[in-house]
Amino acid sequence: MENETTILIVDDIPGNVDVLRKTLEVEGYSISMAPSGEVALKIAPKIKPDLILMDVMMPGMDGFETCRKLKEDTVFENTPIIFVTGKAETEDVVDAFKSGGADYITKPFRSEEVLARVGTHLKLIQTIKTNECLVTDLKRAVLNLESAQQESLAKSQFLGRMSHELHTPLNAIIGFSELLSMRERDPLNEEQSESVDEIKKAGKHLLNLVDQVLEINKIDSGELKCVSQKVSLDSAPFMVELTCSINQ
What does the angle CA 55 – CA 53 – CA 129 come to, to the nearest 5 degrees? Predict the structure, then answer.
């Protein structure tokens, strides 16, 4: 098993520790040991084990109390703690789960059972971590999407305001140029008339560009919708027109 998984064995009997260590090391786990609950509380924050195998009956602080104190630390909130003990009464099993234990193995234990339970809980905690990462990534993606939508809305509003603001002076330029070309008194000479026509053409060209910007902006914002209409092919046999309407 190729991993860097660390397992902490908490037991005051060296023989039990040795059997568990040999069983787990075969699978490639990194093993740390603590002879008591007090020692476990000191070294656990330093090594941050991925799983803890805990004896119940130990001198001083028993396994249940050690488990409760470990679970008070948010670092070990999701760390699976499996009790390995000769106590097999129903109340003992209940106390194990009440103290925060994830599983319960009775002595004498079999190596196959220990490996199966350890492997199951390690896969479970890995799944939980993966799901937490996915949730974090999803939240980040939602925030990025909301930010992009806000930026798009701000851009659309800016383009809309600017396009409307440009309409007024352009219409004035086109209107005055038409008045100049139409005046009867003191008519324009040929050169002046050509200049006014150029002004009018440039103004209409700019106005057309502004209208295109408005239409593109309305397409981006979903305000431009295509409407299908029936047309007579007899009146226009070589051309079919698609009409789009702009929501106001």
Answer: 145
Q: Rounded distance, CA 199 to CA 215, Å?
A: 24
Q: Are strands 51-54 and 81-85 parallel, antiparallel or unpaired?
A: parallel
Pair 51, 139: CB distance under 8 Å: no
Residue with tokens 């492997």: 119
User: Across all residues in the chain, what is the average pLDDT?
Assistant: 81
Distance between CA atoms of 145 and 143, rounded to whole angstroms?
5
Query: What share of the chain in percent tops pLDDT 90?
Result: 32
How many whole angstroms separate alpha carbon 205 and alpha carbon 199?
10
**Whether pLDDT at 146 is above 70:** yes
Pairing of strands 30-34, 6-10: parallel
Distance CA 219, CA 36 (A): 70
Burial of 55 (0-12, 13-18, 19+ CB in 10 A): buried
Residue bearing tokens 């309407």 = 245
> DSSP letters along 184-238, please?
-SS---HHHHHHHHHHHHHHHHHHHHHHHHHHHHHHHTT-EEEE-----TTTSTT
Strand partners, 34: 10
Q: Give me the residues paired with residue 106 across strands.
A: 85
* Cis before 80 (ω within 30): no
Q: Phi and psi for 201 in degrees, rounded to 5?
A: -65, -45
Chain-centroid distance of CA 247 in Å reads 34
- Is this model's pTM higher than 0.85 or not? no
SS3 at position 135: helix
